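Hi everyone, sorry if this is the wrong subforum. Our group has a chain we'd like a structural model of before ordering constructs, and none of us has done structure prediction before. Sequence below.
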Amino acid sequence: MPVKLVQSTPSAYRYPLLIKQLLLTPLAIAPAQEITYQGKLRYTYRTLNERIGRLANVLTGLGVESGQTVAMMDWDSHRYLECFFAVPMMGAILQTVNVRLSPEQILYTLNHARADVLLVNSEFFPILQQIAGELETVKTFVLISDEAEIPSAPLAMAGEYEALLAAADSEFDFPDFDENAQATTFYTTGTTGNPKGVYFSHRQLVLHTLGCAAALGGAHSQGHIHREDVYMPMTPMFHVHAWGFPYLATMLGVKQVYPGRYQPDVICRLISEEKVSFSHCVPTILHMVLSHPQARATDFSGLKILIGGAAMPEAMAIAAQKRGMDLFTGYGMSETCPVLSLAHLDSADLARSVEEQAVIRAKTGRPLPLVDLRIVDPDMKDVAHDGKATGEVVVRAPWLTQGYVAAPEASEGLWAGGYLHTADIGNINPAGYLKVTDRIKDVIKTGGEWTSSLQLEDIIAKHEAVHEVAVIGVADDKWGERPLALVLLKPDHVGQITEHALRNYAAHAIEAAGISRYGVLLQVRFVKTLVKTSVGKMNKRLMRADPDALCI
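Answer:
Right subforum, don't worry. Here is the predicted structure as tokens:
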């Protein structure tokens, strides 16, 4: 039976899903709401809109046209927020440069993305000086600085950001165009080879914003976001658009706080002074903040924090709840824009003990609206949703990247079988909660069975002496692989516990938890540091390459 299409009249507005539409609500209902940078600079949404227009005029004057790429190297700031809107609203593409990559990788991403203009904070001039001679397409540079005295640049600048905006007109006629036009690109923090570029359209970013708003706004009480919240990112804006939350916060018209470079004392100060109530970060960033001396004097009660990017240990969820935080997990990846699921608790679960809640909060959550999330076997057949059967997480949603920049083979592999392959292993319980148990590449293959490194880490992290832990697989002649726990002790426990004692503790807990019997083959080594990626995730590839180099 043929499908009948809905026809519109010639004069009807077709309403493309463009990023500029996200500004309509805040300008209508909260034009005087505040946006602050480090608590030092403050302006309103009305001023944000004017500065977006000024920036678009500046970039147009520098020769930026539709389809060209504008790259940004800055810490989390109001300027970054302005670029999130102005650049794609012009029809250009915003490249958010991962400033924590090596200079060689930064050079690679700028050349690979064929960036035309680079907005660069003076703090990154040493990097710019290293790579300037090998930049292939960037010809125009704009200086960003928080210093009163403009620093000397390693090459010619078209001007200083604030001065250029001050001289520009605030009115800009942002056009309508195809909602499938590319809006952003950035590069993954992969641990092998060169970073891979992913890209997103206006339509994808708008739908991701609406999906997150529906999921977080639909929460009964826990993990809820509303217009009276105060938002501050603790995920870099160069990484998956700070998980898309600056777009969501702007659409809702909430107060926004941008901290600049992530420093624990600054984060604690801003949480206290600006009354921050909603944030998000990877576990290592929260661990860094809570371990800072100033955290002891900071009131975290009422602070909602979404944890993602890596598994959240149940021990962290327990500790955060005892400090008054509403800590819960989300799941996604660079290729998924990123949010796919959230670990919201039902009302009945909130009556449970802190320890019982932590089990649910540390799961990877239930899918957002419009997300088709499956656990499949190697033949792409669904496995049982019994909380035990595991398989690969594959997904469809209207905001997933369509592929990698200039990498057709990798793109085909990503979308094999018509679903995006996450390379994560997990299970789904009868209540619909996803639990990611490991990355395919990090699963420990012992005695013919798979042992989850994340489950072992969660057990070891609960010991009072453990500051941080990473479990990796090391070669073993008898078992194929054997789990090795690399443990960073808390300073006041160094010398107070032995590797043997911690291994015995873990072995008993592993047996009690009913984890694979091969988990008790765990070895424990104390280390002086743990290797992490540019966004704070554990870099297990490098740790597997030479674990002895880390040990005390």
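For your construct planning: The chain has two domains: 19-428, 442-550. Residues 45-61 form the longest helix (17 residues).
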